[in-house]
Amino acid sequence: MSRADVTMIECTGIGMSGPQQGDLTVLPVTEAQRAPMVPGRSSREHAPSVRAIMKRTGCRRTDLPQRTSTKEHDRDHSPAGRTHHRVARVEPRHIARDGAGLHALWRPGIGMPLVFVPGVMTDAKGWRRVVASVEGPEPTLILNRRGRVPSGPLGNDYGIETEVLDLLAWLDWLDEPARLFGWSYGGLVAIETATRSAAVRHVIAYEPVLRPFGAAAVPALHAAVAVDDLDRAVEVVNLEVSKYSPEHVAALRASPAWESLRLWAAPVAQELAALNAFTPDTGRWAALEVPVDLVVGEHSRDADPYGTAFTAVERLLPGAAVHVLPGQGHLAHIDAPEVLGNLVSNIVAGRATALD
Questions:
Q1: Residue 199 DSSP one-character state
Q2: pLDDT, average across residues 43-66
Q3: Helix/strand/coil for 321
Q4: Cis peptide before 108 (omega within 30 of 0)
Q5: Does pLDDT of 237 surpass 90?
Q6: Which distant-in-sequence residues (6+ apart) come within 8 Å of 158 by Cβ?
Q7: Is the pLDDT of residue 134 over 90?
Q8: DSSP characters over 294-315
Q9: Among candidates 202, 205, 171, 196, which has minimal Cα distance to 290?
């Protein structure tokens, strides 16, 4: 191979196995990887481009001018300042679709990317502890869906279609096949997106939801948000939608998490309305050919509201595998992020051979 057949790439390393900071790696790049797209062929039929290799590994070309970027090294602390969980080191990523800015957190790696699609009442940062517990070298992208700063607002014509098109835009940015992990509302978005894109090769959905779900609470949520009573909106979400006890809500109100919950409650009325306005194409869901792994907490199984919704999804995906999280409910990403991360690792490892 001649000098013209290689590209010099410097790797930044993020504490995983593989090239460390300052290493200079010579990656062979074929002419097919440099060549422009051939009309009539999708990007998924080509070998990964230099851009895709650099994106997923955190490396950069040394023969081009470089821009500096800031990594987020946030750690999860208790009020006493003690670290309870590992938190993934990530980098901010931004794209735009139809004039709206979209933000995500990116952990570079090697292999098929894993895209996390969170549900309501959380943001990308809330999933870093899970990502930190997912073993393996694969790159990870955690979306900040619309309504979560620094992503843009939901918009006036918001619906499930909005979320699907946003996720498809992120898949185009990746420019290679990917796995999807969706939680709750994000699980619905991930499954629907998988029925529409050949770029999705595997779906993991943790307690996805379907209509009817929390529809009765939508008027109360709209009323609370209209007068900027976000405390009331958080109460409605927890008491009337999630069916948690008043004691649970009182404990949340006394915790540092309450202020973040107030922010995330603002878009919930629109999100729940979108969920209840969406009817899946049952034939397309049943015909989904990519592997689907459904995850349900032991405490949610067959219980209202999340177990009931999970069963409805399970019936529409007859080929899906089901995994039960022992001792957990709907919030394993908060209560047991390592347990959830380990399960995701095992699912990915179990599917890897079939997808390679």
A1: T
A2: 44
A3: strand
A4: no
A5: yes
A6: 146, 270, 274
A7: yes
A8: EEEETTTTT-TTHHHHHHHHHH
A9: 202
- β-strands 6-11, 114-117 pairing: unpaired
3-state SS string for 226-255: HCCCHHHHHHHHHHHHCCCCHHHHHHHHCC
Q: What is the pTM of this model?
A: 0.78
Mean pLDDT lowest among 74-83, 92-101, 314-323: 74-83
Query: Residues 233-266, buried b or exposed e (16+ Cβ, 10 A)?
Result: bbbbbbbbbbebeeeebeeeeeeeeeebbbebbb
Tokens matching residue 193: 């997106």
Q: Distance of CA 207 to CAs 149, 168, 337, Å?
A: 25, 22, 15
User: CA angle at residue 206 from 223 to 293, to 5 degrees?
Assistant: 145
Tokens representing residue 223 in the block = 């009323």
State which H helix or E strand residue 147 sits in.
none
Pairing of strands 100-107, 140-144: antiparallel
